[in-house]
């Protein structure tokens, strides 16, 4: 059984990752000169700044995600002078980034759009750059309709960020409002669901012994290349 990473180890790992990322930006010619900053919090990379092209951001995300000990790469980066549109679903009283668009059924100071996440999202097709699903899926009896809605509202190069308790960690069952349990293999099932045309390309997926992390890009083009076995082997059994 995977044990949760201790607070001390998380802190030391963040310090290591800070140094590793600093060297990456200093010595890797693909990243040198980019106006980006990365900060690590409990193994999650928070990437901010501005780039001229989407490809630069994708490269930075990929290289940072390869560092040993990174559980996720969350970004809020301007591309070509444009701010990203980021939906924070089920944000409650705390958004992941202050400028995110908070969406929740309950009204708080952080909620910008009141909506029931068990129904259609009040957003146009392919309008969002990023969607946060932080501690949401485990509260829904059937979360697949919401996953499909996120697929619909994301742009083709958008990303969904998923964070949920791991099914074998005590906090997953200690909260009586949790009605679904998740594993990394659940993410694999979401990516290629039998009978569904809404498929996902996994950019990152993992578990720290307490939580499940995943970053998923919607596959909008039926002719798009599916992830190969070597790519999937990074994340799934």
UniProtKB/TrEMBL annotation:
InterPro entries on file: BON_dom, Methyltransf_11, SAM-dependent_MTases_sf
Listed name of the protein: BON domain-containing protein
Coiled-coil annotated residue ranges, if any: none
Any one GO molecular function term: S-adenosylmethionine-dependent methyltransferase activity
Provenance organism: Amycolatopsis thermoflava
Domain of life: Bacteria
Taxonomic lineage of the native organism: Bacteria, Bacillati, Actinomycetota, Actinomycetes, Pseudonocardiales
Residue ranges of domain BON in the record: 13-81
